[in-house]
TrEMBL record:
Originating organism: Actinomadura vinacea
Renumbered residue ranges of the record's region Disordered: 398-426
One family name in Pfam for this protein: Pyr_redox_3
Keyword Secreted applies: no
Protein name: Uncharacterized protein
Matching InterPro entries: Auxin_biosynth/cation_transpt, FAD/NAD-bd_sf
Keywords annotated in UniProt: Oxidoreductase
Statement: the UniProt record of this protein carries the keyword Oxidoreductase: yes
Transmembrane regions listed in the UniProt entry: none
Length: 426
């Protein structure tokens, strides 16, 4: 039981939460981290998965040297994919080393007390913790997007890819995987490895694959093609990856387009050879509906020429990404959600990831609408952590009681989702 009011309480112990906590602790602030380190990565990702990001871009953010992934694994060079288990172990080592006091509990509700200028946070233990600032580092689980066309299927016949850690349950079954990105393609391969009969239904006319990385490009090659960054290769990519603050300078529509089109659905280069004859791939198929028939799922698709197919399978897995939507963050009290200024379902953030509510911060995918596509990946954690920690520390020192966030008026439209098809950070 904690009797005092913490300087900050972080909801979530994934890469963004742990990184932010490490920076806050280094500044001497009293911080509480609620959550099991790397829990989502351990339970929300399938066994046998590899990270899509390169080793140098798979690090949590620490305020001291020696804590990157390649510091922990110096032999891991570009072009060698990282197994999920190795990354989870790295994240837990980071927690033990830099954030040793995480609390194995869940946040049930977050409320604000304007009179005290702090937050009351109810925990699953029954405690009501108090904190001057709250950082929502909740990851992507709450934002899992399943197309409306699958809504008629019961839960036992249709799930999102985030629901599956162990795909062996589908051994001997016909499984339709919806999507064309890394999540869909790797899920299909892992299903085949588990003895299932997967088929990929992709709306794209052909699958896209990421290029094989060049470990040591020449000076001329770097000059022409641009530098390497956490998001890939190229000058613009380098800006969005290494200087996310620049994204906030763009108009809202330009930011949405950037997030929607940067790092679109594609498979990792190392997965291409594993997507073999065991996986039936059908491109150019748009899912138009689905229904249950005789205990099976029947998925209707339409092709480019208007031809209609029905795919009868034992199960459907929607590997269709994540769409940020504040209303799906159920731990926020309704009155808090109403006070957070939004743009297309995402919070409008100031330069330090601060929302329109005093000292309420958002990280990861929820921050992509303000800081761009790098927020979809682990690589954005260090920049995020440094900005948030600096802001909270400055306010703790000054005793400021109100947010001075530089935010602009934003439309709360819920029209075409801008992030469909994105993959979890990493």
């Amino acid at each position: 039981m904690h009797d005092s009011t913490a300087d900050a309480l972080i909801v979530g112990a994934g890469p963004y939460g742990l990184s932010t906590a490490a920076h806050l602790g280094n500044l001497g602030l009293d911080v509480r981290v609620i959550g099991t380190p790397m829990e989502f990565w351990d339970t929300g990702m399938p066994r046998g998965m590899f990270l899509k990001s390169e080793p140098f871009a798979s690090s949590l953010g620490a305020p001291v040297a020696g804590a990157t992934f390649t510091d922990r694994h110096p032999g891991w060079r570009a072009g060698r994919p990282i197994p999920l288990r190795t990354f989870v172990e790295y994240g837990r080592w980071f927690a033990e080393t830099h954030v040793p006091d995480t609390e194995d509990a869940q946040v049930v509700r977050v409320e604000r007390d304007d009179r005290r200028d702090d937050y009351a946070v109810e925990l699953s233990t029954g405690e009501v913790a108090r904190a001057r600032a709250v950082v929502l580092a909740i990851g992507v689980r709450a934002f899992a997007h399943t197309p409306a066309e699958l809504a008629a299927l019961p839960a036992e016949l249709a799930t999102h890819s985030v629901a599956h850690r162990d795909l062996s349950r589908f051994e001997g079954q016909d499984v339709a995987v919806i999507g064309a990105g890394q999540s869909a393609l790797e899920t299909a391969v892992l299903l085949a490895d588990a003895g299932a009969r997967p088929q990929v239904l992709a709306r794209t006319q052909r699958l896209a694959w990421n290029a094989v990385p060049v470990p040591s490009p020449s000076l001329a090659d770097r000059a022409v093609r641009g530098p390497h960054s956490g998001l890939g290769r190229g000058y613009r990519t380098w800006i969005w990856s290494e200087h996310p603050w620049a994204t906030r300078l763009l108009p809202d529509g330009a930011r949405r387009h950037l997030v929607r089109t940067t790092m679109g659905p594609a498979g990792a280069w190392w997965l291409r050879d594993r997507l073999d004859h065991r996986v039936h791939v059908m491109t150019g198929r748009v899912v138009t509906g689905a229904e249950e028939a005789g205990g099976k799922a029947v998925v209707a698709t339409t092709g480019r020429e208007g031809d209609r197919w029905e795919h009868k399978v034992d199960h459907v897995i929607a590997a269709t990404g994540y769409i940020p939507d504040l209303d799906r963050i159920g731990i926020l009290a309704p009155e808090l959600r109403e006070r957070v200024r939004l743009t297309h379902g995402s919070p409008v953030l100031g330069g330090y990831f601060d929302s329109s509510l005093p000292k309420l911060y958002f990280t990861g995918l929820a921050a992509a609408a303000s800081f761009g596509p790098v927020m979809r990946f682990v690589h954005g954690a260090d920049f995020t952590a440094r900005r948030i920690a600096a802001h909270i520390a400055a306010r703790a020192k000054s005793g400021s009681v109100s947010s001075k966030s530089s935010v602009t008026r934003a439309d709360d439209a819920r029209d075409a989702p801008p992030y469909a098809g994105t993959t979890p950070p990493g």
